[in-house]
Write a structure and sequence with these properties.
heterodimer; A: alpha/beta; six-stranded mixed sheet; 11 helices; 10 strands; about 25% strand; B: about 350 residues; mainly alpha; ABC transporter involved in vitamin B12 uptake, BtuC
Chain lengths: ~250, ~350
């Protein structure tokens, strides 16, 4: 009983997770335990396996070995939509939105509708639209509701992608470089949103190269190098860790 | 919403309703206007194409998987119907529905296998399916009649030729209506929105929790059901089947081109495409039947559409109409909180003072 409760409290974990592409081992027996209810960050040099880790966790890539568990359930190798329905949402490194759909439809897609009657019901019912508009207002892009997503600027698309992920009501949200290619004002806005949502109970796991953002909003940082974690801890500790400095700066 | 005001939406609805009413009237009145059986057969041919193109659009339009192999499904529906009549002795229309049901069931393993691959690979798998069936139905002459053909008894032996055509014209129209209604129901549903998300970005859809494989398979099976009904009805109408024409990649491609020409994102796109290409092909055959000029004409038409209306005829025309009647596209730019507040107090400026969709954040 208590073991089960502990496992649920632990949230997302990987055990000895391994994935190779040809001769390159992108993720190498990585055992990582993310802090549930907190803002976690995964940092590390390019090619250190952060995105592959995300893809293995979310089922986009099947790992060669090892386990992924979420709140006590084994989710290793499950199809992506099952993992999403288990409560894990994600954004993509190169922001992906449904380019030829309206901003509103981009959110409505994410609504869960179990059973045939719900599936065949109109996609545009008032309650769902109101909920979607709520997220758009929070992202500050509600004035673009009827625009096609491809006509939005890069920063607006990033906000739209985040809104879509939130519409699916995940407990844990994986963000792959949320600040990539975004202007400083918007980075601040995204950072503030992450902190607000975390205060509302969402767990975040963020891959990010913008150290100012990582250090300011994250509670727990995991440093990756050559496919496995080499250090973890709160920002202050990571900043002064010799192994981290070596991996990043080569000093 | 501000950019999509009530009067605009109502005007759109009225225009659409009027267009649908006119379309129905034209289709229903055609047999009375067509003064000879030949014209009626042209109309049936076009409706048959429209059924097949609309049925294809359940897969092609929603999920974006381009199948050039739907002739396999219509061919199976045709031969299934014919064989159930000739060998099993079923009444014609019972045979039609039983054959369609069998093809629908068969479409589950076919779809499950074919939909594992995307893009060009899926196209090739779908073509392979047609070619395999062509060989099987040509070689298995003891059952299918092979290249000598398979004669299907007429369902209404008492009817004159012209009456026979008239009845089948309305049967095809009814089948088309069924397919259009089913497409419309899916188009506006959550299920349909999920399928359209697959068309846009399959991995992203899965990451949002959409059961992409199941969705694609259901779309394929529904598409197969209507395609088989179209093929079976053709068998009952035409009364003579030849594998070369039933399992033809060329016919399958023509149907796909019709859908693309009309616009695959629109309910009536495949129908409009079928009318344009079907009528064009028939006219070409009539005027230049001895020469391959009708093929040249089709080619020029399709080339023109691809170059000037890549989205199809319907979006191009409705785009022109929208520009005439209602400049309602909101200008897309970063909006400051102050501007947003202002625009909520006042009616929005339409297409803001000529600056167009400015991009501030790029």
């Amino acid at each position: 009983m208590t073991g089960r409760a502990d496992a649920r409290a632990r949230g997302l974990q990987t055990t000895e997770l391994t994935k190779s592409f040809g001769g390159v081992t992108a993720v190498d027996a990585a055992t990582v335990s993310f802090q549930h209810g907190k803002v976690n960050a995964v940092i590390g040099p390019n090619g250190s396996g952060k995105t592959t880790l995300f893809n293995c966790i979310t089922g986009m890539i099947r790992p060669d070995a090892g386990r992924v568990s979420y709140r006590g359930d084994d989710i290793t190798g499950k199809p992506p939509h099952r993992i999403a329905r288990a409560g894990i949402g994600r954004s993509f490194q190169l922001c992906r939105v449904f380019a030829r759909m309206t901003v509103l439809d981009n959110l409505l897609v994410a609504v869960r509708a179990p059973g045939l009657p719900h599936q065949l019901a109109s996609a545009h019912d008032r309650d769902t639209i109101d909920r979607a508009r709520g997220w758009l207002v929070r992202m500050g892009i509600d004035h673009l509701e009827h625009a096609e997503a491809r006509n939005l600027s890069w920063g607006q698309q990033k906000l739209l992608e985040l809104a879509g992920v939130l519409m699916a009501e995940p407990d844990t949200i994986l963000l792959d470089e949320p600040a990539g290619g975004v202007n400083p004002a918007l980075i601040g806005r995204i950072g503030a949103l992450v902190q607000q949502l975390n205060a509302e109970g969402k767990t975040f796991i963020i891959v990010e190269h913008n150290m100012d953002m990582v250090m300011s909003i994250c509670d727990h940082i995991i440093v990756f190098d050559r496919g496995r974690p080499i250090a973890e801890g709160p920002p202050a500790q990571i900043r002064s860790d010799d192994r981290v400095l070596e991996a990043y700066l080569g000093v | 919403m501000r950019s999509d005001s009530e009067p605009t939406r109502w005007r759109g609805r009225v225009a659409r309703g009027a267009a649908i009413a006119i379309g129905c009237a034209v289709i229903l009145a055609f047999p009375a206007v067509a003064d000879n059986p030949y014209m009626l057969t042209v109309g049936i041919g076009i409706l048959n194409y429209a059924v097949l193109a609309t049925a294809w659009n359940f897969v092609g339009g929603f999920t974006g998987y381009i199948s050039l192999g739907h002739a396999a499904l219509s061919g199976l529906g045709a031969y299934g119907t014919a064989l159930l009549v000739t060998c099993a002795g079923l009444p014609s229309f019972v045979a039609l529905f039983v054959a369609a049901a069998l093809v629908t069931v068969l479409a589950i393993p076919i779809g499950a296998a074919a939909l594992r691959v995307r893009g060009a690979s899926f196209v090739i798998v779908s073509i392979a399916l047609v070619l395999i069936l062509l060989l099987v139905f040509q070689s298995w002459a003891s059952l299918t009649g092979g290249s000598r053909g398979l004669v299907v008894p007429r369902p209404f032996p008492a009817l004159h030729r012209a009456e026979h055509h008239r009845v089948f014209y309305f049967l095809f129209a009814a089948l088309l209506a069924m397919a259009l209604v089913a497409w419309w129901v899916i188009d506006r549903s959550r299920f349909g929105l999920g399928l359209k998300a697959i068309r846009e970005d399959e991995d992203k859809s899965a990451a949002l929790g959409i059961a992409t494989f199941a969705g694609k398979l259901i779309a394929f099976v529904v598409s197969a059901a209507f395609t088989a009904l179209g093929g079976g009805l053709y068998a009952l109408w035409f009364g003579d089947l030849d594998p070369v024409f039933q399992f033809s990649v060329l016919t399958g491609s023509t149907v796909v081109l019709m859908a693309l020409l009309g616009g695959v994102r629109h309910l009536f796109g495949p129908l409009v495409g079928a009318v344009i290409v079907g009528a064009g092909l028939e006219y070409g055959k009539l005027e230049f039947g001895d020469t391959p000029l009708h093929l040249v004409g089709t080619g020029v038409l399709l080339g023109g559409v691809v170059m000037f209306m890549p989205e199809g005829v319907i979006p191009a025309l409705s785009g022109v109409l929208a520009r005439w009647f209602a400049p309602r596209e909101a200008s897309i730019r970063e909006v400051t909180a102050a501007v947003l507040l202002d625009s909520r107090r006042e009616p929005p400026p339409r297409s803001a003072s000529g600056e167009g969709p400015a991009e501030v954040d790029r």
